[in-house]
Amino acid sequence: VCIFFFSRVLECQGLPIVNGQCDPYATVTLAGPSRQTKVKKKTNNPHFDEVFYFEVTRPSSYNKKSHFDIEDVDEVDKMEIRVDLWNASNLKFGDEFLGELRLPLKFLRQSSSYEAWYFLQPRDNGNKSLKPDDLGSLRLNVVYTEDHVFSSDYYSPLRDLLLKSADVEPVSASAAHILGEVCREKQEAAIPLVRLFLHYGRIVPFISAIANAEVKRTQDPNTIFRGNSLTSKCIDETMKLAGMHYLQVTLKPIIDEICQVHKPCEIDPVKLRDGENLENNRENLRQYVDRIFTVITKSGVSCPTVMCDIFFSLRESAAKRFQGDLDVRYTAVSSFIFLRFFAPAILSPNLFQLTPHHPVSTVSIFSSYVYGSANFKESYMATFYDYFNEQKYADAVKNFLDLISSSGRRDHKSIEQPILLKEGFMIKRAQGRKRFGMKNFKKRWFRLTNHEFTYQKSKGDHPLCSIPIENILAVERLEEESFKMKNMFQVIQPERRVLYIQANNCVEAKDWIDILTKVSQCNKKRLTVYHPSAYLNGHWLCCKATADNTPGCTPCTGGLPANIQLDIDGDRETERIYSLFNLYMSKLEKMQEACGSKSVYDGPEEEEYSTFIIDDPKETYKTLKLIIEGVGTLEQEHAQYKRDKFKKTKYGSQEHPIGDKSFQTYIRQQSEISAHSI
């Protein structure tokens, strides 16, 4: 059994004003880390309207890891949703607690949707000076859903229909896109769709298809991917799932240091505390920003492949749509990687497991100046940003975006020139099996793009050798004993051809190995073993094998993971999608009516149909018909399952032991239904 909770924090009224200000935010907790709303500035009547998703599974029906595991539904009844209200403060003691409410989940089993106003209550160890009546109130909407997951074959028709969405022309007529059209919130559709497509390896073509369609509808390059569309929500969810480890290795060390050292970073002269020096604070902030900037822009080789492939498709779509705008290929990617990925993690590191708690004031101040609301309207911010108004920073961002939006997979339809990733002089040994001699080592200018790895005599010369990226089977270090030379590595190609290269130093060698591994890690014929030493004088120095085509004797290091392994149950996600289609059946039927209207009437569109994107009414209608048929079939299976469960399952069995209140409730409900039908 899969249980989903949708908790919508709507609004508050009459929150207390603390120290002359009220910048409230709410945290919502079911189990594990809490989720946080955005901070609402200068109001004690904030309107949040933010949705948080929680998931609980029963191991008896789903034996894989999930967010929270329970043994039986009784445990769900014992759980409670807790909402805490806080005032965001820059004081050294941290944010002020304003009040809380606790909602036992047993109430939700009586109604699938529960909405009410609550008086905020004081916490046991909270501020005792505030009376309950002074805490204000909060309106909360919680949705409870419980799904039964069948075996895989039950979902084949609906699953197959969803998985071919990327191939449907136009993509707006696909099942996945239609789900996004009928759901109240795009995120409702994005969560199960992304998990399903990731599980079956179809996330990149699907996002590429819907992104390309969105770009075609965009008129102004400055507004590209700015809205909360299905594309944006799907990319957000993909980055959240595939990029969590990337965030950890990139940001956690510097965030930990900022939290531990507590250097003052306030540069607003009005907010300086006694004893603080403005110039010292500005230098502290500059150093932190510079270090954060550096770790991010040097992290491109760690960016997960699935994210790089998505960014490549965004770059391509934007460049094709706005060919006169050379910047749009970068802004299309930066709007996601910076504003929707790194920025939220820096602003709220506790929500991304970068810190265990909400950050202390130093981190809060730092993050607000890096990605927050501070802007050039304040003179002190304009002065501060002058530090970073240098070409080296612009070049670093450009190189980073080039790397994460490049792909080793060739697209012959691409209008983009190959993206230059790295170049420089190194020393290489001639390829082949000639007798060893110093004459075989020559200095050459190497150049790496997302298409090929080449070398020539000097920069700008015609290439002497070109290795397509798809022919790079492994990139590994070469043991020093091979040629008595340090900082060497090898590029292994088909038919056991090996290019031996010496970099200028160990740092350069690592950089070349990392970036070559990055662009080639999705090659289908990548090796699993290699020879760490060279083949000289008729044998491999490492394993002494005499045949030059002997398979490697050492496992490849692998470098960076080509694919993120996620624990996803495709059947469970398909069941969730079925439940959404079933929930919004009236909208599916309304969309069918809209298709009919568009097919026979070419005049002004009726207002009730204008919310749907329908590019091809006939294709969309065909897909809608298949969706409704598939949902109807599954609905019948669920009804039959409930009838069989009521008839066959014995109270006191292993499946439903005595004391199982959920089963008792179910029996009572079924009895009432039977009596009513009689």
Q: What is the topology?
A:
Elements: E1 2-13, E2 24-29, E3 35-36, E4 47-57, E5 68-69, H1 73-78, E6 80-87, E7 96-104, E8 113-119, E9 137-147, H2 156-163, H3 175-182, H4 186-199, H5 203-217, H6 230-242, H7 244-261, H8 278-297, H9 305-321, H10 328-347, H11 361-371, H12 379-385, H13 391-404, E10 420-429, E11 441-449, E12 452-456, E13 465-468, E14 474-477, E15 488-492, E16 498-502, H14 506-520, E17 529-530, E18 535-536, E19 539-540, E20 554-555, H15 570-583, H16 585-600, H17 617-648, H18 661-677
Parallel strand pairs: 4-5
Antiparallel strand pairs: 1-4, 1-9, 2-3, 2-6, 6-7, 8-9, 10-11, 10-16, 11-12, 12-13, 14-15, 15-16, 17-20, 18-19
Annotation field: number of helices: 18
Question: CA-to-CA gap between the ends?
Answer: 30 Å
Strand order of the largest sheet: 13-12-11-10-16-15-14
Low-confidence sequence ranges: 60-66, 433-439, 559-563
Question: In CATH's first tier, which class of the domain at 243-405 applies?
Answer: Mainly Alpha
- Here the CATH topology of the domain at 243-405 equals GTPase Activation - p120GAP, domain 1
